[in-house]
Amino acid sequence: MKSKVKIQLAREFRKKPTESERIMWERLRRNNFLGLNFRRQHIIDGYIVDFYCHKLKLAIEIDGSVHQNQIKEDIERQKVIEKRGIKIFRVNSKEVEENLQRVLKEIEVFIKSF
């Protein structure tokens, strides 16, 4: 069950996205990317993922500087999410900001691999 705190936190994240999340969302929203429906700041087992496609069971995580300080937490979080059969594509925020087209191509190749 989703806690009220997590729901509120996800709402806050949607209201104030990072620059890389804003850039990525512009390409993923409204089925703009490969006709797929993505949600942003989606809660899975108490964890908030940046973007989620239910049809593919795919989470896209943009790792910024905050992730350098929480490596162990991210590993545990990923294990919990992957136990649900969800695949996770991780990308560095700088890559999204500097070469979005390459990142989108990498996501497409990742999707075709499963």
Task: Summarize the helices and strands and which ones pair or pack.
Blueprint: H1 4-15, H2 19-28, E1 39-44, E2 47-53, E3 58-63, H3 71-82, E4 87-92, H4 93-98, H5 100-112
Parallel strand pairs: 3-4
Antiparallel strand pairs: 1-2, 2-3
Structure overview:
The chain has 114 residues and is of the alpha+beta class. Strand 3 (58-63), helix 3 (71-82) and strand 4 (87-92) form a beta-alpha-beta unit. It has a 4-stranded mixed sheet, with helices on both faces. The chain has helices at residues 4-15, 19-28, 71-82, 93-98, 100-112; strands at residues 39-44, 47-53, 58-63, 87-92. The radius of gyration is 13 Å and the shape is globular. The mean pLDDT is 94.
Strand order of the largest sheet: 1-2-3-4
Total number of beta strands: 4
Share in β-strands: 15-25%
The radius of gyration computed from the alpha-carbon positions, rounded to a whole number of angstroms, is 13 Å
Short description:
This protein has 114 residues and is an alpha+beta fold.
Which features would summarize this protein structure in a list?
alpha+beta, four-stranded mixed sheet, 4 strands, globular
